[in-house]
Amino acid sequence: MKIGFGYDIHRVAEGGAMFLGGVEVFRGKRLEGHSDGDVLLHAVIDAVLGALSMDDIGVLFPDTDQSIKGISSMVMLEKAASIMRKEKYALGNLDCVVVAERPKISVFREQIKNSIASALFSEPDKVSVKGKTKEGISEVGKHLAVEAYASVALVRDM
Prior knowledge:
Low-confidence stretches: none
Radius of gyration: 15 Å
Oligomer: single chain
Strand content: 35-45%
Number of domains: 1
CATH class: Alpha Beta
Shape: globular
Order of helices and strands: EEHHHEHEHE
């Protein structure tokens, strides 16, 4: 078994759509980033790559590469998942926390679990997604940013 941890934070910006876990969760506000800014998937990608003792998301998808500007974070997760499979690992379980005042994660939890599980060649019962707030404290609490944490266990896939 291999264990990895991931974290990410992105600023909230006006316009567009906000994606979390590959699911559109908000219209009129988006997360800034070189990609679509899906902070949850970025944390998951870093957790998977960390479990594999590989470089982080910024090495695999550098923000200096203009050819991937605006890339879907789901495409990025699928790349990490293909590396996971190539290394002969499968998802044991994934535990995620999204810290945001808005949107409420509970409304989208099942969609997000299904989206992430599918990208990782797994089942939704191996994915946990929780939402927390900062109770109005900090940039996240003022809805100026969203952060996410992910912990993953990978198991040998024979």
